[in-house]
## 1
Amino acid sequence: MKKAIFFLISCILASCSRDNINILENEHVRFGFSAENGALLSLYNVKEGVEHIDSAKAVTCPLWEFEYMPEVPAVENLPEVVSFKKKGNDCLEIYWKQVEGMDGPELKATVRFKKDRPSLADWHIEATGLEGLGVKAIRFPLINGVKPQNEKDELALGVYTGRLYRNPWSLVSEDKPLSSRRETGYQAMQVNVLYNPETDGLYWGTEDTDAWYKIYDLSVYPDRAQFYIAHYLRMDIDVDSYSTPYPSVIGVFKGDWIDAASLYGQWGRKQNWCSESRLKKGLVPDWVLKTALWEWNRGRSENVLPEAVALQKELGLPVSVFWHWWHKCSYDVGFPDYLPPREGREAFIKAVAESRKEGIHCINYMNSYKWGDSDPSWEEKNAHLWCIRKDDGGTISKVYNIFTGKSLTCMCPSTEFWRKTYADMCDTLVNVYGIGGVYMDQCGQAKPCYDTTHGHPVGGGNSFVKGHLQMIDEIREALSSHPYDAPALGGEHASEFWMRHMDIGLPLQAGDERMGGHTYEIIPFYQSVYHEYQLCYGNFSMLVSPPYDEKWPEQFRPKDTEVILPDEYDRQFMMEQAKTFVWGIQPCIANFHEHLFDTKPQAMAFLTDMVKTRYQALDYLIYGTYVRCPEFPKYEEEIPICKLSTYAPDEKRVTGSFKVVPTLYSSAWKAPDGSLGIAAANIADQARVLEFTLDPAEYGLKSKGEIRILTADNEPAVLQSYDGKTTVRFNIPERSTTVLSIR
């Protein structure tokens, strides 16, 4: 079969004529470029005999494009003369030059195979003659005509925790392609893959250690896909030339997204965000590490702290608080007018101090870079001078709160004004009010700023991220005199560039169904690379309807604020908690009330079981390295799903649908001591007998050992011993969790 495919590819290349295509190849991958315009006509997996490019669809697509500033006309005299130069066996240079006698931009691309991962290649672009042209970004490499293999194709994106599209070609039409356009930050890992587990995969991304602003753009049509990376240029100086300060990476691999994660991790794990990660260096506060469950409640202290104390007493394990709507201002309207707290300074300080005596720690919400432009402070402090400006001079503003119609505007963290404003608030909240830390909402994002008065590189560059990280360092300095336990800083999502600065990240994707129906599945792509370097916590899982801020207009207050959801949605709650558990994320319950132990006994029993089981397996579920889990039987069931929206008319706050979901979730982890942990969660109403084959050599285990079973209510018990390759059989009861410890 491979010989036939190879013959077919050879015929395609022959039809293009060897004179019209230039080849760079090694024993793993072959790149073929059009001699006429430099387009990529072939991306061929040599070992597997798979071609990824439909040359007929790719031939007219250039390898690069310019993006321009607003109202700047496109360059008419683009370079038309294309030439190639081989640099040894592992490097090809492609030149685009002007016709003799013409002036204008010229470019050079360099494609070089990696020595450590030879199925991948580094791609760089250089451009000259740019001065005065208004080029905002260069799209490179622009790859078109990526073709389907078959219906088993899968697309995995390094966005947030990770997204997986099964057979993406079937999810789109010519008029409605699947589009993904993600900036630095949102792209938590710089890797995307399109693969077929039976054949091979296409790998693309970047390897940038300094958070330069870029956009990863992907479009999938029924018969092809196109992707590019847009690299943004500085616009504050007349720059005649530009060279990408990091490589784009394109190549092939064999396997699925777990194999791709391993390939990416060979680079990512060597970077300073791992060697200097706060978790790895032991800098995450001890109380954060010991947190068994987070309570995510909102409002005044009486709706938050006594409930946390009650939850902790019921569990018999440490509970910490993730606290929204504690502040003076209306949520998503009056930022950053947070202080004093809405219940008053003295009452707040007293409530926090009393809960601290019970062992309760809190991290409180403050948005990391938004200002309400309707708040009086916007004018009083001339905040508009320090906000991010778009390329057309406008601000980046968005209305989140539909009840008020008032917007929040993005501030520039490169400015001392914003960094000091935010750090001072953190200082007061922690050192005066006694809070255990700050949750910096929307941390982990990046924006280009085109304001020429801020003193940072305009447009392209990495000023946003570097300013944000500098702000975090300044906050830590301000909190160094904290009189109680070490304070914690948390941020939304999790992303490479923030890993060595933040204690914890909040990925909400375990409850993605609750936030809306999607054609993709959530996968622990990020955790599979960085779990032991980045502590994550939380989800939006709840058993009641959404709350309503007392500061919002009373006329829009819904009738069902924090009303118990129908029992039919309890399985969804358990599903969200199960994914959190097996993905190695600290669990959380939103909008908790003590009565739920009586009104939702099954759901709360599952949560309690999971929290207690997890607490016996922290070497795996905090410090463990993600490894491929043995294959278990696949169990699925159609369950009711509720979509919740705080910002929706009364009748649309809770809407129902159905979805087929797994009822058994599992994962595997290597602990620092070399032992293997297998976590399993069963959300079905019936017990499951699970059987799998264990090969100790596959996991680097000793040939002889024993398997212990960890559950919520029992001391670890020996399930069985093993001697070489062994069949393992165990029972997981209905609505329960288990961890197997194999050593």
## 2
Amino acid sequence: MEFTTSTGPIQDSRSGCLIVGIYDGKKLTPAAQQINDAGDGIIKAALKGGDLSGAVGQTLMLTAPQGLACDRLLLVGCGKEKELKDRSYRQIVQAAARAVLATRTKDALCALAELPVPERELDWKVRQFIEAAGHAAYRFDQLKSDKKDDDKPALRKVSFPYSSRGEGALIKLGIVQGRAINDGIDLTKDLSNLPGNICTPSYLADQARSLSRQHKSIKTTILDEKQMEKLGMGALLSVSRGSRQPAKLIVMEYDGQGGASAAGGRKPGAAKGTSAKNRQKPIVLVGKGLTFDAGGISLKPAAAMDEMKYDMCGGASVFGTIKAIAEMELPINVVGVVPSSENLPDGDANKPGDIVTTMSGQTVEILNTDAEGRLILCDALTYSKKFEPSLVIDIATLTGACIVALGNHAAGLLANDDELAAKLLEAGQKSGDRAWQLPLWEEYDEQLKSPFADMANIGGKGAGTITAASFLARYTKEYKWAHLDIAGTAWLSNSEKGATGRPVPLLTQFLIDKAKGN
């Protein structure tokens, strides 16, 4: 889908669909008023029918509107003007995107970015529509033999009107960022939705190599099991012992240093060479890449076990974030580290009571083989020290306890640095991909005590999300670190089953802010 800017009076637009807002009580927005005046009261006449009151998310499609050059006119309810906030604006653009994509129109002109949202600029508002359109248009039909063209959206182009050079620049910025984030979200969804027999650790490694071929700013390195064994990654390799698929440690280094472009990234052709003295320390993103998790010897129940293909959503979100920032050419250095394995029952698989030695030299008693994500992450977190990071964020579908605590609305956030946590919370609020901070107190460490090793891999029934983070915290004492538990947000079940692409919006917003020096 193409996104672009548009000049000239919107009432003269020859687009397939013109999108304008209506406030609660049938009050017209400025763009709607323009259209109403040009169309001899067409909008007010339509509103008299009572099919749209202006409540948030209501839509009314007028076809072949008389007196206008557009083929369709979409009226979208915006609620009360003074109560318009981030969430209601997203509801508005999501409803608009769904309504347009439900038609066979090929192009649209969207005037919803004129709506006043407190503390949000034009670029943010444009980006929200682009992300909404991306979610509404997404289809995962790669593995279907009968692909129906009627199922695919006809919409190919969306334009946003502007009246000044400053507005045009902000809209272009929103388009660059929104399109890149959509591409990152789509990659994350595609990788996550693939079944475990296709999306293996080796497949993920191939996708990382493909990403580096697409973007010269990305360097990919793949460590195999022999290399990991030499490094002493006993925890990670203990998980892969039960699988016929070899584990991989996937490393993607994005080098974004250079001059800034108008789109918030590097100027085309700008030199990337930077002296070691002035080189920025990278941000490291570590994503759990369990391509299938049956629980190992501590076998999971059969019901919904198919959804354990989503246990690599943390790793997939690292792929998507790296792709997004590469397309934006953000002037920042980021390393993506994805430890990838399967967790299956086998004669050589981990057994409850086994003790493994991690890359850090610390020993772990495995009380439950289904708490394997922290085992592959702890070695990846230790490995991340080699990059001398400014900070590290790990992302994982780690605990069912996080779903119990926060449901499907917010990711769990724990950190050893309050400033880092605050920045992530702010990025989540701004992107609409929110997180909620949980405590990481020393008291929770007591639950991980083992009589036979330095620690156990589970901490009992209580505070499962926190004790999992407490486990990981033992491997992150030498740098600033935050942990995102996305077990409740990475995918949807039931009729809407599929990956959500979260937390790509949160992570990219955080990196955009960091690139600006925030």
## 3
Amino acid sequence: MDLILHNGNIITMDEKCPKASAVAIKNGKVVVVGYDADILKLTGENTKVFDLRMKTVVPGFNDSHLHNVKYGIFSNCCDLSKCASLQELIDVTRKFINDNNIKPGNWVIGTGWNQDLFDVKLYPTKADLDLISKDHPIVMFRCCSHLLLANSKAVEILGIDERTLQVKGGYFDVNLGLFRETAKELVQVSIKSYDVPTLKSIIKKSCEDLLKQGITSIHTDDFNMSVDYKRIIQAYSELAEEGNLPVRVTQQCLVVNQEELEGFINCNYKGLNINDFYRIGPVKILADGSLGSRSAALKEPYADAPNMKGILIHNEHELKKMVETCQKFGYYVTMHCIGDKALELAIDSIDYAREKYPHISLRHGIVHCQITDENLLNRIIEMDLLIYAQPIFLNYDLHIVDDRIGKRLASSSYNFGRLVRNGVHLSMGTDSPVEKFNPMENIYCAVTRKDMNGYPKGGFYPEQSITVEESIKAYTCESAYCSYEENIKGKIKNGYFADMTVLTDDIYNISHEKLLDVKVKMTIVDGIIRYESNKDA
């Protein structure tokens, strides 16, 4: 054996052997799961034996939806997530420019601002950003990444003015410097020209951070962070071929329209799997925006903005055509849907495609699936759709959703408990860098239905909570199911990949409030210890 872990509290997620104290690993696979006396007999001359000291082990966390390259890029940008006022946003950005000695004419990128956290809850404007500098082009992404701001210098360099045509599926106001949804591409082109070596460096650094959080696999949507998505594929592929990709990656392949979809299909990437570390996954389609920026597409106007119903990226005909094309060529689809109108169109599109090609069975799914009514929930259950959920969103959304959409619709939204109890394949992710990719924070929100400060006391529609065990399943087995890998990972079971996470506490037997205190002691991928905390906890 290459590695034996013993004297542990091993949660296998294998129904036939749910608990164990030891596991033996060889050639990156689990060979035997059982108890110390039997497993330690398998120790060989070159076996590394690790005493877990009764630490809890779970299958490696598998984040079912994030943006790995964007996280890497944003990690080097100005962090505005803690700004509580417009003035603080200005001051923090000025300090970032000075501390990093950014010369006039060079781009300044800020990320993470949220007007709902400001003392005066208004969007910043181009004029506000000009107070920071008129010599630096400045771009600031809202925390949801569905809206950005640009100052006068950025707008000037990009050649955008009042004569510039509006972009389908988006909106911009050049006087305010505000760009929503697809209109962001007018600005983002300035930061998407990384070459393959640079992308490889960004990816490696991001993966190191993922390992520290016990994450061994990810489903990542990266295509829109490059002027050519083929660079993204090449960067990951080269890392996987070199053995330098420490986390298993499934690519969620974002396409912006029918033309790009057909071009992607013609490249014949379907089935690409390099050493079980990089694989092409579903086609990703954006249906709408975000709740925080009021660009999530709703059936009825926003309760707190009666003149707004959000933005549909594609009309009904376009969306049906795209999903039909994917169904025809055997590509499963995952669609970003936050508003109930977007979700309705997405479900209709999947229904249409399945009726058109009933002999083709594919695991289509919905990313986010936040604003739902009774009919939509029932259709999700009946159609056996995958749900890529982000319970961590409740940390912020529970403070705004009643005001945004009204209590009636809010009560049938974020209904994770109902979906799980009805057998829906619900996996968990974080949408990082929108949220931190800390699995324990995500699990805490799923279980307690509270924000990080323990509010509200009884939980936000607490009947929609799920258990710790259901959360672990959503983070392991179900995330593997999303990528058709349920027979090779997501469990600590004979023949499965030896991907595991060692935690400091027994998450099944601590108070729910203590979940936030649980840390990662060790992360194992392919039978190799990729991360180990130096702390004794």
